[in-house]
Every structure is written in C-alpha cells, then in structure tokens.
Amino acid sequence: MTMQALNQLVARSIIDPAIVQSFGTGQIGDVLADLDFSADLRERLAGLKASSWAEYAVLAYRVVKATEKVTVRVELPSPAEGLLPEQRKSGEERVA
Amino acid sequence: MIPVTSEERHWFLSNLARGLVEYTGVAEPPVPVEDILKHPPALYESDFGVVDMYSNLWDATFARPPTQRGSVFVRIDLPPDERRFALAREMLSALITSKHGRAMGLSDFLMTDLRESAEHFARKLLMPMALVTAYRKRKGKLEDVPDAFQVPPAVALTGWDESSDTLN
Q1: How close A17 gets to chain B, by Cα (Å)?
Q2: What is the number of CB-based contacts under 8 A between chain A and chain B?
Q3: Are B141 and B112 spatial neighbours (Cβ–Cβ below 8 Å)?
Q4: Residue B147's CATH number
C-alpha cells in the first residue's frame, strides 16, 4: 500500500500544481498526511531534503522501497526452521 | 542533482504517464494521446498542441516558437500507430519545458537520457500498467496488443515484456 500511495502522489503531481507548491514551501508533510503512510514513514518522508520535486520523489522512492524490503524480510519465516529435526529444535529451545 | 539509476528514472516516468492517463479517465485501450495534446489539462494549455507537417527528416519533434504555444510537429504521412507513439514520445519534451515541468525539476532530471526517457514514457502512456494488466487478465494475447493499444509491434512487444516483469 505504501508504494502505491507514493505512486499515486507522483502521478498526481504531474497535473496538480498544489503538490509541487507544497514541496516548494516546505509543507509536503501536509500532503503526506492525507496518504496511506505510517506515522513513522510520513515523518521520514516529510524530513527529506531535495533540490527539486523530481529529486524528492526519487529519495522518497528509496525510503519506501527500503521500508517495504524490511517488512517483507520480517514477515518471511526462516528457511532453516523447516530443516531442523524436531528433537534438535526443541533441544535448542531449551538451551535458549 | 543526485545520481539516479535507470530503474528509479523509469519508476518516476511511469508515474508521470499514469497521472496523465488517469486525467483522461480512460478505462480501456487505446489511450487517446492526440486528445490529451489537443485538449490538455489547464496546466499545459500553452505547452501542448499538434501541428501536422510534411517532412522527411523526422517523424515528430516538439518545438516552442517564441511567444507561442508549444506543439508537437508531426509528419502527416505517418501510419496511425507510429504517429501515436511519436506524439506520446514528444509529449515528454512538452512536459519538461513547461512552466510546471520546470517547477518539478524535470529538465535536470531527464535531459541526459532524454531519448530513452521519452520512449519509456511513451510506452507507459500508451500501455499503462493498469490497462495491460486488465488486458492480460482477460486473456488478451500478445499478437493482438498492437491492435488493442494501437501501438507499433516493437513497442507492443517491449511493453508486454515490461508488464511481465511486474506481474512475475
């Protein structure tokens, strides 16, 4: 959803001058508030410094992409889990 | 300007094209590229236009005569699919040089790879991901893409391959 929100923002920016104006006046956070970003991500995106809207969009893309990668990594189970024999696994759990 | 990868540049261009497609409200191919140029968003009233001309030098080129509206000058005898692609490609130059495009910083961002950027933009304008995905879900075939989207066969093939990368 997050990347979709960013895609939507960049898509709108080509026909909606208010977005670029908000960026230019340092108020892009107001625009981001209406989009589907987490509070933490919104804060990071609002704090990005760029010399133009195009540059800002790319920096935001990097941030959102990195965030989505981390999310995917956290959601995946460890491939080692299925390989461990049950007994050994339970033994390791006891040690831990 | 920060260094930008081609993947990042393509992502950005795809979204610019998407914004224009969404502006038209089109839900089925073909995307009416000539209509966008002839009846542009208010923001681009002094930047978009189409002028037919006789030329053996190029298929189309964007120009902005001093104190006049910018226009894509297009060869009058181009086949319709090639005409559409040429108009879509040159639309990027119209955007870059427009007042809004300059405010967005498009020229610094895109000028170094202009030709490649313009062709990518044109493909995404004429074959937007949403419409290609819907077409493929309806079991549309690659060989029918040039007709459905009214694009040259080579453009259809590249656009199809790009959508495969995203769908996989």
Answers
A1: 7
A2: 66
A3: no
A4: 1.10.10.2910
Structural domain contains residue B151: yes
The mean pLDDT value for A5-24 works out to 97
**Residue B1 lies inside a defined structural domain of this protein:** no
Question: For residues B16 and A96, what is the distance between their CA atoms, to the nearest angstrom?
Answer: 52
Q: B48: domain range?
A: 6-167
The answer to whether residue B143 sits within a structural domain is yes
H/E segment holding residue B157: helix B153-167
3-state per-residue secondary structure call for B50-91? EEEECCCCCCEEEECCCCCCCEEEEECCCCHHHHHHHHHHHH
Is B105 at the interface with chain A, CB within 8 A? yes
Cα dihedral angle (B129, B131, B136, B140), rounded to 10 degrees? -140
Secondary structure tally for chain B: helices H, strands E: 9, 3
Rounded Cα–Cα distance for residues A67 and A86 (Å): 34
* Residue from B104, B109, B110, B114 to probe the interface with A (highest A Cβ count within 10 Å): B104
Residues B123-137: pLDDT tens digits? 999 999 999 999 999
Q: Is B127 exposed, middle or buried (0-12, 13-18, 19+ CB in 10 A)?
A: buried
Q: Does B124 reside within a domain?
A: yes
Better-predicted residue by pLDDT, A36 or A20:
A20
Say whether A10 and B15 touch across the interface (CB within 8 A). Answer: yes
B104 touches chain A (CB under 8 A): yes
Each residue's pLDDT tens digit, A48-89: 999 999 999 999 999 999 998 776 655 656 666 666 555 554
Q: Do B109 and A52 touch (CB under 8 A)?
A: yes
